[in-house]
């Protein structure tokens, strides 16, 4: 339970500040590759506050759209919507098309 509260607290801090923390950004970029879903999720939530300043992370965030953890995949989609660059929009569109194709095969 303590990990849950730590994650919740970190998430609330990110949303309360409403900005991209320059000091936390390098570790957040590393955490996009973490084995821990909670760390990936926190990193994505931070990225969502950074807008186009994290354009270079779009390829990795795009990969996380297909994460086995539904929360991480959802946060990746949210982050890409918030980044809102041409590449981020294209990644969302590709994921949407892939899901539509997968549904049509069923």
Quick summary:
Helix content is 71%, strand content 0%. It has 106 residues and is mainly α. About 11% of the residues have low confidence.
Describe the structure in your own words.
- The protein has helices at residues 2-17, 25-31, 37-48, 58-63, 70-83, 86-105.
- The chain is mostly helical.
- It has one domain: Leucine-rich Repeat Variant (Alpha Horseshoe), CATH 1.25.10.
- Helix 5 crosses helix 6 (86-105).
- The radius of gyration is 14 Å and the shape is globular.
Sheet-strand content, in percent, reads under 5%
Order of helices and strands: HHHHHH
At the fourth CATH level, what is the homologous superfamily? Leucine-rich Repeat Variant
Q: Low-confidence segments, ≥5 residues, pLDDT <50?
A: 7-18
Helix content range of the residues, please?
over 70%
Per DSSP, the total helix count is: 6
Q: Got a strand count?
A: 0
Please give the radius of gyration in angstroms.
14 Å
- Straight-line distance between termini: 38 Å
CATH topology: Leucine-rich Repeat Variant
Which CATH C-level class is it? Mainly Alpha
How many domains? Answer: 1
Dominant shape: globular
- Architecture, according to CATH? Alpha Horseshoe
Average pLDDT level: 84
